Amino acid sequence: MQKLEQFVQKLKQFMDKNLLQRQSDKGQLTEALSILMEAEELIADAKNVLVVTGAGISTDSGIPDFRGPDGVWTKHPEAEKASHIDYYMNDPEIRKKNWRLLASGELWSDIKPNDGHLALLGLEKEGKLHTLITQNVDGLHHAAGTDPDKIVEIHGNIREAMCLSCDWRDNIESVLARVRGGEEDPRCDCGGLLKTATIFFGQMLVPKDLERMFDALEASDLLLAIGTSLEVSPVNSVVPGAVEGGKKIVIVNGEPTSMDVLADVTILGSISEVLPWLLDNQNS
């Protein structure tokens, strides 16, 4: 009884703060309670959880989306252009501007994992986390302490730099130090162009990462999609794949997605608030 009272009290706090957007708009406490309890039960029953995260999990860490009013590409149009591999390779000025922006530290200054990232550590501690697929390049799942062997950065990462001509790859700070030292368009020792280890538009995804994603989908019994619109390939295939494979599906997002109709449970709200509560409940 005490646990149920705590459960309802916490839910009321969420409703008061409008953290459960769709449910609080309706003002239906019992509906919200039912939805959250169902999600909690699905996670509790799962043995192998595939987590997929998108930009929504990192917004409370101070990383805006790319195309919104405060988005990276809205404020820095040259950064969007630099994200197309053909432009990047063929225009030295785009490369120089890109390296200057990265070296300045203005892109994502002082970002840290938020409570949403940290909440996922509970799944790992319980032995439930099979694989974490992230569309984000910010490295915040690594910073939060998730086992790197369980993380697949499907769109690459911004922590590392790579050569477009050979297999050189290293911490990006080694290149940024050269830029701060006066190299406007740094090159690899082999003479090749350097870039961040993110997947640019026009580049192929890493086959091994795709293989890991689909293997994890097959091995999992629950798909937990967090902060993603589920519209960008290849992540847009995981929900239909989960349905086909008979997996349970929970979607946690700040706004509706086109995949909500396929989910067993959809929770709309603040990810950094909802996710810790939902996953912490597993240990209560």
What does this structure look like?
The chain has 13 helices and 9 strands. With 284 residues, the chain is of the alpha/beta class. Helix 7 packs across helix 10 and helix 8 packs parallel to helix 13. Mean pLDDT is 87; it is low at 22-26.
Question: How many domains would you count in the coordinates?
Answer: 2
Q: Class by helix and strand content?
A: alpha/beta
Q: Tell how many strands the DSSP assignment holds.
A: 9
Parts with pLDDT < 50 across at least 5 consecutive residues:
22-26
Instruction: Indicate the proportion of strand residues.
Output: 15-25%
- Indicate the CATH architecture of the largest domain: 3-Layer(aba) Sandwich
Largest sheet features? 6 strands, parallel
Mean pLDDT: 87
Q: What percent of the residues sit in helical stretches (DSSP H or I)?
A: 40-55%
CATH superfamily of the largest domain: TPP-binding domain
Give me the strand/helix succession: HHHEHHHHHEHEEEHEHEHEEH
The radius of gyration is 20 Å
Shape: elongated
Helical stretch tally: 13
CATH class category name of the largest domain: Alpha Beta
Q: Please report the distance between the alpha carbons of the first and last residues.
A: 13 Å
Q: In order across it, which strands form the biggest sheet?
A: 3-2-1-7-8-9
User: What is the fold-level CATH name, i.e. the topology of the largest domain?
Assistant: Rossmann fold
In short:
It contains 13 helices and 9 strands. It is an alpha/beta fold and 284 residues long.
